[in-house]
Write a structure and sequence with these properties.
The complex is a heterodimer of chains A (549) and B (293).
Chain A lengths: L1 E10 L7 E8 L2 E6 L5 H6 L2 E4 L6 E4 L1 E6 L1 H7 L3 E2 L5 E3 L2 E3 L5 H14 L5 E6 L1 H4 L4 H7 L5 E5 L4 E4 L1 H7 L3 H5 L4 E2 L4 E3 H15 L2 H17 L2 E9 L4 H12 L7 E6 L1 H4 L5 H13 L5 E3 L2 E5 L28 H13 L3 E6 L2 H17 L8 E4 L5 H10 L2 E4 L2 H13 L3 H5 L4 H7 L3 E3 L10 H10 L16 H7 L2 H7 L16 E4 L16 E6 L2 E4 L8
Parallel strand pairs in A: 1-4, 1-5, 6-15, 7-10, 10-11, 15-16, 16-17, 18-19, 19-20, 20-21, 21-22
Antiparallel strand pairs in A: 1-2, 2-3, 5-23, 8-9, 11-12, 12-14, 13-14, 23-24, 24-25
Chain B lengths: L3 E8 L5 H10 L6 E5 L8 H7 L3 E4 L12 H10 L4 E5 L6 H8 L5 E11 L3 H5 L5 H9 L3 E5 L10 H4 L2 E3 L9 H4 L17 E6 L7 H10 L3 E10 L2 E8 L2 E6 L7 E7 L26
The chains are: A alpha/beta (549), B alpha/beta (293).
The structure holds zinc ion (ZN) (2 copies).
The site of one zinc ion has 3 residues of chain B, from loops.
Chain lengths: 549, 293
């Protein structure tokens, strides 16, 4: 039986036939893309059903987010969002909250509605919401435990009731570093202290599972048919494996999870042979929806949001230094093991100094064992110089970028971190495309919303959070941006033979949109509604939440 | 709670941290708990740990959000509660000694007995001119109570007197000398002078309706701590691009658009009264289309 779907436009990303109006699917596979008349040789031979539900909609290849963290999302998603940026969550449209007063009002409103043991709010940003303080929360909620988590996740405040509830001993906490007990503030290592007390609550089984279920909704809502879990083992390898299989393995999940293990965790305290053997057996026992392949993830430098990216001179405005997450020589040794074993290697790099190190290592590895189509990928790439990107091309490197950094951080980092020139050119994607690098976009959810259309919008318009155009010449065309969330993202994960474009022989992974991102006003790309998806030919519809108000 | 004595062993990859740790464990005169760095190069001798101390924990570099497993101080608490009085910590090769000291000095019930940085005497010069870790190595040496040279004693240059004065050489094998057990931490960190810089703060404000150009300029002029302001605002006279630097406020008419919000940078502790300028309680936030973070 063939299912034939008719659409106003089908954007195929298949060069020989860029536009179409009909797509025929059998057993989850595309048998042909074209028009009803071009499909006739199939229709004459096979029983079929023609679906016209989407004849005024636009179909594009199923969206792929090649880098997010389900485990991290599972911790954050059960929290109550109050954010300066509007967030579309499947269960709630979170409006923009841009003043301190409005932030407090939202807290009061939510507190009246919920009955959590500890009420945790996520999204506070002092840039918009003013300084948080224990007394500020105490005034709103004197007796119920409340935590206000910073948007970057690197800082939190709690009220007095919460300290009592968690048994945070004042004497103990007072003398800890990076804890300001008066303000109820826990940051850096102090945050670790607070988290160790909150762990029984935020990592509790039922809550963690609820978090993963919410992530599933988020992924559906964004119109994805594939996601990459880009560091299985971030918190707890075995537990993540077990819970992901339980939650994403079932029939309620309409996307596949490409699993890339955290190399640091996997190789810790054991030989490369042992790690490789474990990975082979994980790949062998991969199910239809969750798949390990010959892929591995390593971390070079610190988090972009914490300004711990390793920078080449002139560095940061205040003279502080970024951090390495692994000794450079050790990083090289580990990359070498997996390079020689034929793996596709993903390296988290946020600063240009980390890019320099990573490319230097790869150049050495290429001279030891030349490889082509090796899938070596720079993940995030906050700052990289034009010369580095030309070098990356010569080495066959791909880029998976978090372009949302630019929208969220560029104006702030221009003033407070690295100055205008480098802040405005973070995420040099125009250069990546000009150099011919395989370039994809990711969300690193919850570092950015898992909404490919929103990330496309940032890449195409390069408008920062305050409306300023940043490095105009680095903008992508809508077609490049669409490729970056579909076929290029598939190449990053090494699954481009299966998905990422619409042509005969690929999985029937399709995202159904209300409008064509290649022809709407570029500033309207983020307003296009995701109507639903076909995942391996199975239809799933989004609730029409966007039509409300 | 019993009091815990910490000995911190830092230094770059290949300096001999694990070797020293294993030697200390095998010659220990007391029972030690051990905290080793995560993602390390060499395994420490588990058998040694089991025979002499019975416990080891791991420690990671990087930001706290990536370690839901808990922080170093909590690990030390945990060890103290199980009765350990002495803890050896092998820091990661990329750990800054300044940051570790920051975490550990002043913890209740904890004494930092010594922070020792190991350096392979032969690799000092190349490490100090490394493209990747030069500043890290300086930090590790600047913030050590004692610098332990392994293999050979480096030939210190004249600018390295502060390091030379704290450096001792350790033979590669044999009985550990007494000083290894007797190093005492300084109260203040030697060789490090704090530099105070002016502290900048920032805040984004969506300017409320009903203000004129003169009101806006007046606000900036009235609060000299404001160093810069940049962004877009809708005032009575229209929509403006705001670019203000100390003492000069430039408002350029700009085509109306979705975006609003002005980022203010000020210096010092005195918060400018943004409530005068900002959207107040009554106004529906939904009116504002965009915004940040
Ligand atoms: Zn990530
Ligand atoms: Zn982090």
């Amino acid at each position: 039986m063939l299912d034939v779907y008719i659409a106003k436009t089908i954007v195929t990303l298949n060069r020989s036939q860029p536009d179409a109006t009909a797509i025929a699917v059998r057993d989850g596979m595309i048998v042909e893309v074209g028009s009803l008349s071009s499909l006739e040789p199939w229709l004459l031979r096979e029983p079929h059903v023609i679906h016209r539900t989407f004849e005024s909609d636009v179909m594009v290849p199923g969206f792929i987010d090649p880098h997010l963290h389900p485990a991290m999302a599972a911790v954050i998603l059960p929290m109550h969002f109050i954010t300066a940026m509007p967030w579309s969550l499947p269960w709630r449209e979170v409006p923009a909250t841009v003043t301190p007063e409005a932030f407090d009002r939202e807290m009061v409103r939510i507190l009246a509605e919920v009955d959590d043991e500890i009420t945790i709010f996520w999204g506070h940003h002092d840039l918009w919401h003013g300084a948080m303080h224990r007394s500020r929360i105490d005034q709103l909620s004197g007796d119920r435990p409340v935590v206000v988590w910073n948007r970057s996740f690197h800082e939190l405040h709690m009220n007095h009731a919460c300290m009592l509830h968690l048994g945070i001993d004042e004497v103990l906490a007072q003398r800890r570093k990076q804890v300001d007990l008066d303000a109820g503030r826990f940051y850096e290592n102090g945050l670790g202290f607070a988290i160790s007390r909150l762990n029984p609550f935020i990592l509790e089984d039922a809550r963690f599972r609820q978090g993963l279920e919410r992530l599933r909704e988020v992924v559906h809502f964004g119109g994805h048919t594939t996601i990459g879990d880009m560091a299985v083992g971030l918190f707890d390898f075995e537990r993540e494996l077990r819970e992901s299989r339980a939650i994403f393995g079932g029939p309620e999940t309409f996307f596949r999870v490409e699993q890339v293990p955290h190399g640091g965790v996997l190789t810790h305290g054991r030989s490369a042979e042992e790690a490789l053997a474990q990975l082979s057996s994980l790949a062998a026992e991969s199910g239809p929806k969750l798949t390990f392949r010959k892929r591995i993830k390593f971390f070079a430098d610190g988090a972009f949001f914490s300004q711990l990216a390793q920078l080449l001179p002139p560095g940061y405005l205040d003279g502080h230094e970024g951090e390495w997450l692994m000794v450079p020589e050790l990083l090289e040794a580990k990359l070498r093991e997996f390079w020689h074993a034929g793996y596709r290697i993903h390296v988290h790099v946020t600063g240009d100094r980390a890019v320099e190190l990573t490319l230097s290592i790869l150049e050495q590895l290429q001279s030891e064992l030349p490889r082509t189509n090796h899938g070596f990928t720079l993940e995030h790439m906050g700052y990289a110089t034009p010369e580095q990107l030309a070098w990356a091309k010569q080495l066959g490197v791909s880029v998976s970028a978090n372009i949302y950094y630019l929208h969220e951080l560029a104006s702030r980092y221009a003033e407070m971190s690295v100055g205008y020139e480098r802040a405005s050119s973070m995420g040099r994607l125009g250069t990546c495309f000009d150099e011919g690098l395989i370039t994809a976009l990711h969300s690193d959810f919850t570092m950015a919303p898992a909404q490919p259309l929103l990330n496309m919008w940032v890449a195409v318009n390069r408008v920062n959070a305050q409306g300023e155009l940043m490095a105009e010449s680095e903008r992508l065309t809508p077609a490049q941006a669409l490729a970056a969330v579909t076929i290029n993202a598939a190449k990053i994960l090494g699954i481009e033979h299966e998905t990422g474009s619409l042509r005969a022989g690929k999985r029937a992974d399709v995202t159904i949109l209300s409008d064509n991102p290649l022809s709407v006003d570029p500033m309207a790309i983020r307003d296009i509604a995701v109507k639903g998806t076909l995942f391996e030919g199975t239809l799933r519809l989004n609730e029409p939440l966007h039509d409300i108000g | 709670m019993t009091s815990v004595e910490l000995t911190l062993i830092g230094g770059y990859l290949g300096a001999g941290k694990t070797t020293l740790l294993n030697r200390m464990l095998s010659q220990a005169r007391h029972r030690f708990a051990v905290i080793v760095n995560d993602l390390g190069a060499l395994p420490i001798d588990q058998a040694l740990i089991e025979s002499t101390s019975g416990t080891s924990l791991t420690l990671t570099n990087g930001c706290a959000c990536c370690q839901l497993g808990g922080d170093l101080a909590s690990q030390i608490d945990q060890l103290a509660q199980t009765g350990f009085e002495r803890v050896l910590i092998e820091a990661s090769g990329v750990a800054k000694m300044s940051r570790l000291r920051d975490q550990l000095v002043g913890l209740p019930g904890v004494t930092l007995r010594a922070a020792m940085t190991l350096i392979d005497g032969q690799s000092l010069a190349p490490l100090l001119s490394s493209r990747w870790v030069d500043r890290l190595i300086r930090d590790q040496l600047d913030h050590a109570d004692l610098i332990i040279a392994t293999r050979v004693m480096p030939s210190w240059s004249s600018e390295q007197v502060a390091w030379r004065e704290r450096a001792v050489f350790l033979e590669a094998s044999g009985e550990l000398p007494d000083w290894v057990w007797q190093v005492q931490s300084q109260v203040s960190t030697p060789g490090f002078a704090a530099v105070t810089k002016p502290e900048f703060h920032h805040r984004a404000v969506v300017v409320r309706r009903g203000l004129s150009r003169a009101d806006f300029e007046g606000f900036v002029a009235a609060h000299p701590q404001i160093q810069r302001a940049k962004g877009f605002a809708t005032l009575n006279e229209g929509h403006f691009l705001v670019q203000s630097t100390v003492g000069r406020c430039i408002l350029t008419p700009s085509p109306a658009q979705d975006f609003e919000g002005v980022q203010f940078i000020w210096v010092g502790d005195e918060l400018p009264p943004f409530a005068e300028l900002s959207m107040d309680q009554g106004e529906p936030v939904a009116e504002v289309e965009s915004v940040g973070i």
